[in-house]
Amino acid sequence: MNQEIELYLRCLREIKMRLDFVREDYVRPASLEAVPIMKFENACLQVRKVVEYLAFASLASNRQLYETEWSGFVRENDFSKLLRRLQKINPQFLPTSVSIEGLNSSGEWLMKDNEFQLEPHVLTSTYGRLGNVLHAKNPYSDSTNWEEYQTFLRQGVKAIISAIQDHVAILATGEHLLVRMSGNDQPIQPYILRER
């Protein structure tokens, strides 16, 4: 396996590890009474980091582009601007969620795009909304509706997992990669594709 693909997979392993961590401890409990607020805030932080990894993963194969965009993001700290720049570099920088139907007689994957796809505006909204949980509260503001945030977090994690479980990624180098991430304990399985 070439280095570009390995770098992309390293980002995916980081995403999977963080999502597994959040899903096990913070998404399953029925109420926040079972999850102290600081643990919930940690879960929000982990999902924000997942969103950052999703945004940057397709650039991982191009070190110069990655470092340039990362330093710009750190300097500006504006996630929506970052996504617009990433989209200019690689219009298909987000993974495309697919349903696998099997292999044809030539050994090529049969797949179709899923209806739900990760979109830049959804990532921006998720990133911003979960960021609200991470800042100190204004003592004069209304109390936080933690149940609403927990529902939002739960739905966001489920959406991200379903969108990346089986997906096609187009790396900054132009390579097309089918990635299967099904199952908690299953390894990430990459397959190089001809262009779709």
From the N-terminal CA to the C-terminal CA, the straight-line distance is 20 Å
- What is the average per-residue confidence, as pLDDT, rounded to a whole number? 85
Give the neighbour order of strands across the main sheet. 2-1-3-4-5
Tertiary shape = globular
The number of distinct β-strands equals 5
The Cα radius of gyration reads 18 Å
Q: How much strand?
A: 5-15%
How many separate helices? 6
Q: Low-confidence spans: pLDDT under 50, at least 5 residues?
A: none
Describe this structure in words.
- With 196 residues, this protein is of the alpha+beta class.
- The chain contains 6 helices and 5 strands.
- The chain has one domain.
- It has a 5-stranded antiparallel β-sheet, with helices on one face.
- Helix 1 packs antiparallel against helix 2, helix 1 packs antiparallel against helix 6 and helix 2 packs parallel to helix 6.
Task: Please name the defining characteristics of this protein.
single chain, 196 residues, alpha+beta, 5-stranded antiparallel β-sheet, 53% helix
Give a short overview.
This protein is α+β, with helices and mostly antiparallel strands. The protein has six helices and five strands, in the order ααααββααβββ.
What secondary-structure arrangement, pairings included, does this model have?
Elements: H1 3-27, H2 37-57, H3 63-76, H4 79-89, E1 96-103, E2 109-113, H5 120-133, H6 146-164, E3 166-170, E4 176-180, E5 189-193
Helix pairs in contact: 1-2, 1-6, 2-5, 2-6, 4-5
